[in-house]
Prior knowledge:
Strand content: 25-35%
Order of helices and strands: EHEEEEHEEHEHH
Amino acid sequence: MAHVHEGIGERLRAFVEEQSVFFVGTAPLAPDGHVNISPKGARGSLAVLDERTVAYLDFTGSGAESLAHLRENGRITLMWCSFGATPNVVRVHGRGEPVFRDDPRWDGLIGHFPQVSGHPGARAVVLVHAQRVSDSCGYAVPFLEYRGERDLLVRYFGRRDEAFHADYVERKNAVSIDGLPAVPLPLPPRTS
């Protein structure tokens, strides 16, 4: 049975901040559009800003479904499963908003991610305004084990110049698989 909370209190905040991965669920408005679930979780890429606001740093990848869905309708759910001995599942249902590198808010938001703010693939900060916060037992979720961070994305984009990155985003992240606008072009320069 889920417990609904007024917000992300200290106990839930500590839980979500210690997990090694979380999942993002979004969907387009079209009934035949593709629902998307994406794993997220480079260490330091999540910040609980207050009891009703979470932000995560979104990295360039092979697609941009979540960003496209958020630009279209803003609906988002975040989910964390326990990597510790005590089972728990936390969900934040809300409204999401991508903040891209040319947004005046970028410089203030990127400061919430000091461990990864210089990541060469950082393309957006996603602000999530919680409408419903809940946790449930997670008794049927298997034990999960964190073995370490992958550095492949950092190495991939870190050894390439800005022109390569901009071309990659234009080819793979400008629109979703359903044809929705995803990352606005032209891509603003990387932050240092």
